Amino acid sequence: MEKSFNERWSVGDNRSYLDNYAAEVSYFDPILKELIVGRDKVIAHLESIDSNPHIARGEYLNSGVSVVDRGDFTVLARNLNTYVLDDNGNERQERAWNATEAYRLIDGEWHIVHSNRAFTQTAAGAIASSRARGPRRVSVTRRSSLLGPRRRTG
Q1: In what order do the strands lie in the sheet with 36-37?
Q2: Could you give the 3-state DSSP secondary structure of residue 48?
Q3: How many helices and strands, by DSSP H and E, does the chain display?
Q4: Do 42 and 28 meet the contact criterion of CB atoms below 8 Å apart?
């Protein structure tokens, strides 16, 4: 399903992903600081920056899929390299992305409920690391409602 969306997007059909977004979709774009929430707002943003991409080829690398036990929620993460044709008709890489889509089964159909795009080369070094200050503990106090009720094992 995901590859068919990208294939349509690549030939100029920007509705491929857009038509699959759930009403409450949220989207992180690498050119914005804030999260966009709501299908109409996400579509308006994406159409304002790239309404007809004409990607010559998409290359999928390092794909991973995680599915929640109940089978109604899944996360697809991958690297996506996009290529366009230059003025001489030769392929050149346009972008290298880290891309994540979260899908939920809604009324028997899979819909994107969250999308995240990031450029693969955004910083010269590892800026998320805090080694210089020593290790930090992270505490998770609340489970996301997107994951549904917690299941006990054992």
Answers
A1: 36-37, 21-28, 109-119, 91-106, 73-85, 57-67
A2: helix
A3: 3, 6
A4: no
The letter for the amino acid at 13 is D
- pTM value > 0.85: no
Residue type, 94: E
Q: Name the residue type at position 129.
A: S
Q: What confidence tens digit (pLDDT) does each residue in 90-122 have?
A: 888 888 888 899 999 999 999 999 999 888 875
The model's pLDDT over 50-98, given as tens digits with 9 standing for 90+, comes to: 655 677 777 777 777 777 778 899 998 988 888 888 889 888 888 888 8
Instruction: Name the E strands within the chain.
Output: 21-28, 36-37, 57-67, 73-85, 91-106, 109-119
Cβ-based neighbours of 68, under 8 Å, separated by 6 or more: 74, 147, 148
96 compared with 37, residue with greater pLDDT: 37
DSSP codes of every residue in 78-91: EEEEEEEE-TTS-E
